[in-house]
Amino acid sequence: MGRYPDGPTPCLKDAACQVRITSMRDTGPIVIFSFWGAVIFSCGAFMLWKWNRSYQFPIKPILIQEKSSSGVYEDDTVSSDPEGVSKRTSQTEEVHVELEGDREFLITGFTWTYFGEFCYFLSCLVSLHWIALYVLILVDTYNKCEVGGIDNLCFFGNNVIFGTYELNSKVFFVVWWLSTFWFTAWVLNKGRVHNFFRVPCDLSRATVVYVWAKDQREVLSINVFFLVRVLQRVKNTLIPAETRGHFEIIDISSTSLGQRYFFLRGQRYLVNGEELQRAFLNIGTRYSDFFQVATGLTSKEAESRLEKVGFNEIPFKPETLMFIVVDELFSLFHVYQLVIYMLQFWNSYLFVASLMICIVLLSASVTIYSRRRSQLAIAKVTEYVTETLVLRDGEWTILPSRKLVPGDLVKIRSDWLLPCDLLIIKGFCVCNESALTGEAMPVQKYMASNNLERYRLEGHGSRHTLFSGTTVLQAGNQRQDDVLAIVTSTGMATSKGELLASILYPEKMLFKYDEELPIVVLMLLAYGIICFIISIFFQTHTGAQSYWVTKWIYCMAILNQIISPLLPVALEVGQLHAVERLKVRGIFCLNPKRIAIAGKIRVFCFDKTGTLTNEGLDFIGAQSVVRSNNFGPAFGPLKTPANGDDIEPSTLHGLATCHAVTKFGDRFVGNQVEVMMFSSVGWELVENANEAPCVRSVSGKELRIVKRNEFDHARTTMSVVVQDKEGLLQVYCKGSFEKIRELSAPHSLPTNYMHTARQHALDGCYVLGLGYRNLGSDCNLERVEKLSRDDLEKDLEFVALILFRNELKPDSRNAIETLKAGEVRPVMVTGDNAQCGHYIAKQCMMVAPDVRVLLGDIDTDGSVSWRPMSVEQEGYNTRPLSTEELLRDHTKGLEAGLQELAVTGRAFTVLRRSEAMERLLYFTRIYARFTPADKVLVANMHRDCGLIVGMCGDGGNDCGALRTAHAGIALSEAEASVVSPFTSQDKSVASVVELLREGRGALHTSFACYKFLITYGLMFSILKLCAYWYGIILCQMDYIFIDGVAVLSLGYAMTLSYPEDKLAKVRPTSSLLGPQNVASVVGVWVINLLYLIGALGFMVSHTDYVKWPAVYSHGASWWTLGDNWESTVIFFVMYFQFITSAFVFTFGSVFRKNVFKNWFLVGSYGGLLVFMSALLLLSHSGFTSLWHVASEQFNKMNSNSPVWIAYQAHGGSPSSAMPFKFRFQLWWLIMTNLVVIIVWQKIFAEGPVAKAFANRFPSQRQKFCI
């Protein structure tokens, strides 16, 4: 056996071989054609029948109008038409389903028929039959092929089925085009194909529902490339925005009792006849309603409710690995790759095509792994079943938690992870809510009062609610204490379920590169079509003996090389490594795509207490009021109980009682402010079952807390009613000093009340006011229970200011300075007062020392006025400024950063109504006295302005804002909190810096991989065109080293670069078509092209060069077309260009560490550089012949090459091998090529020239002071 294959003998020339198919009129083709006809006839008949049926019995979508809180109630009846129940509209009316406030769905029922299922079965057979035909063609192509070395790897067979190469190629051509159209249509309608063979029907007979939803997505860039706008206009013209959406086909299931239902976005919907109902049980709206049903359920009641709401579980199951694999591989891009590589499989590239398929599978496996890992992480949070002690049929029964239903009476135990939301009706608990809120401090939960007050989960109702996913640390004071609670919601209706919904069904965010990627693909496709046309001309020009199908396949190969199979992974792979690095630093991520988004953040919002400052506050003392008949109330000195100071009795009693502290073992738990306050007085907390708690001093003074109103964010107060031993009842109320001022009688307030309180706040104190009221001897406990909170918290006597010190975390200042140095604007959004926020902002350098801060607050007339915050600054202008005056006279100072703004929550509300807040947003640094809802509004306002915004908080009242921001990071001990996409266990704001570092590095890495693959495609197209011009094809080992070694090893190594230690003043571009990326790719491509032209010219001018005689070659026998100088020059020049492109695109710029710190890349690049240099310069040997290096004399007497043999037979003379001198000169030319590429990338594309260009033509974006 020689170097090249010389067999097998074609079947037509072998007497012992019989050709199976010689004509399209043979039995085999007739069977195939008959099958096609049967499929076309059957599907066509079904379409006509389905159309006629739909015409006679039209079915329109169902009308459902729901609010997020609506559902199925216990008293629902068909005739009452309650909210959440659907009705069939008139047959001519199309309607919408309105869910979750702003979501719209169209729902239609479908059912199966025997005819439709038969047609669907035929369609599946068609897909399988294409694969069978490919196998048949490949068997014919490779039957009895030879395997004898790298140049004889099963290149052709004996054509035992079709007899000739020509007939085989024609069959392949037809099958390839038909199967390509078939699989493309199938993939574009993936998920809808089966439903196409179902018929629409009433819901009462439906087996599935077809749900259509309008696309809702956020575009994370307002400055888009003009071609994107053109594409958007074309898209809007062809497919109007209101008709663009996504669909879901959902099976209708049935319970054991026949209740039909389906899940939509995690919510359970009941199908009752032609009606839809959202499965939800409303146990009550007032606290008294829950106490009325606190007798437990019967088994029959529980079973009935279970039929409606379903099992108590999050209806999320990770997709099976097989489903993920099929779903990922059966995508449009991978089907495109498959049909392209089928060309190579047929065209004698069996082993190279197998290698390329492996690369495709490898790239797909990265996506599959990421998707699978994310789902398992979510499943870890959602999956939970525990045993529960439930009162059923009057007896306490142990049941699995998945069988709980709303209304069940449950006995709470200590050290228990809660499976549902519950309302405590007896006893109290201490809970750890870090898994749900991110806040690690234990919190007290106590029984609700049996009154007519409305139960609201938000606000003070949360103090009585045990949330699903949180842990009960302690139930009651003693083991024998019974703590009872009513199940209020289960499954996705729980607070945990609602949080998980934002993870399971996230808002789709379109990055700038997501919008530009179709433009890039279209541009590459247009370039590929041009190359396709040119390649046809080049192949004709050489005079090679090629069949038309062979020429067509070579042209199609260019399209395959231009669009790399790794391209979809290139924009994601950097994020996967960033996830692992963040995990090592204690930062966990549930949504890897948010990492790249974090790389573009321009504004980062911070909570103050527990985030910028320490979690605990140090109690400084109380400054009580001293009353004098002559001078009125005045502030006395600051006193601290721990120092033995003699504190006024009313102040001491307020400190001892006005709190919600409880005991967990030997430690106090509750709000840390209250824990520190109570601990300082040295009193004892006595808690007994079925008794109101009391506090007792060392001297025996005892006060019993008979009623407590928990802290309310909206009111900013909390209060208690206490009773002394004589039975006298008193009210103590504490809260923000502004609110206590409103609630206190004017005569009890010192004249300098606000000045003193603000001065303490400006000095960094957390300031609360304390008020007191004696209810009188005629008031009793029964009357107290009837008094509303408003009645209790009024006409107070001001008692004292309570002061705490809120110290900055050691690393907060450095983190804020790093962010500002990285051109990220930090802002503070806090529930604390503006003065304390101002102090912390100054301490952490969020506000520069010499910057004047103006505070916007509400005046008595309801308007917003602006005043200097610090006492020193008040001398500038004692008269407050209106908002109009601020915008008119101080805009320049605000834009220059000489002045900044702080705004209170009340002023923010007024400014939003007048739209003035939009103009002041970029100048506002401190948002004070903000409720959780206000914090969400701040994040949304920044998003609406087109800014990428982050949020950092410790959970609790930050949850909404953490989920609203593009990248929220919760400082929590939980490994995977559902509060936000990111969770930091070290509870330091330095985690924000780490996230931004990794985000910028990951984004830059993704774009480096993208540029490498684009350059790879562009250069490979040039390689193909050059080969077609000369009539050559590189040998198989060359392709293996290009695709299998260079792309895989260097492509992977590029992703291993670490982010830079410091944040640069710029962010990486997110535009595929931005000038930096275009200059980088086009510049490298043009330089490489010029050097390739120079190398080929140098080759042609050499005296020993003999042009490859392509006229004597046969295009189908490509393995014989690499024995020439042209192949050697083109391969070595371009291979060095390939690997150097990967090297230069990994330059760190300012976002990643220096390329030389990426040891794997440097080692791979250096190793390939040395190896390929040696391969080019070494003398001919068996080793170099594997690559067909021209150091071998191909055109010699008795040559192995059939082309050179034919050349000599037609009068050509032998020629010498490529001399060492030429190869050495060629190597030096290649080295200068590499140096020029490096200089271009380092100086022009990413260096000083690029920076000067960016400064000369800055991007159009919002400008504000950092």
UniProtKB/TrEMBL annotation:
Family: Belongs to the cation transport ATPase (P-type) (TC 3.A.3) family. Type V subfamily.
Region of interest: Disordered: 73-92
Localisation: Membrane
Gene3D superfamilies: Calcium-transporting ATPase, cytoplasmic domain N, Calcium-transporting ATPase, cytoplasmic transduction domain A, Calcium-transporting ATPase, transmembrane domain, HAD superfamily/HAD-like
Keyword Transcription appears in the UniProt entry: no
Transmembrane segments: 30-49, 118-139, 171-188, 321-343, 349-370, 517-539, 551-571, 1013-1033, 1039-1058, 1078-1100, 1129-1151, 1158-1178, 1226-1245
Domain named Cation-transporting P-type ATPase N-terminal: residues: 294-335
Stated name of the protein: Cation-transporting P-type ATPase N-terminal domain-containing protein
Keywords annotated in UniProt: ATP-binding, Magnesium, Membrane, Metal-binding, Nucleotide-binding, Translocase, Transmembrane, Transmembrane helix
Annotated organism of origin: Ceratodon purpureus
Signal peptide (UniProt feature, chain positions): none
Cellular component, GO, one term: membrane
InterPro entries, per the entry: ATPase_P-typ_cation-transptr_N, ATPase_P-typ_cyto_dom_N, ATPase_P-typ_P_site, ATPase_P-typ_TM_dom_sf, ATPase_P-typ_transduc_dom_A_sf, ATPase_P-type_domA, HAD-like_sf, HAD_sf
Ranges of residues in domain P-type ATPase A: 387-502
Major location category of this protein: membrane
Membrane topology note: Multi-pass membrane protein
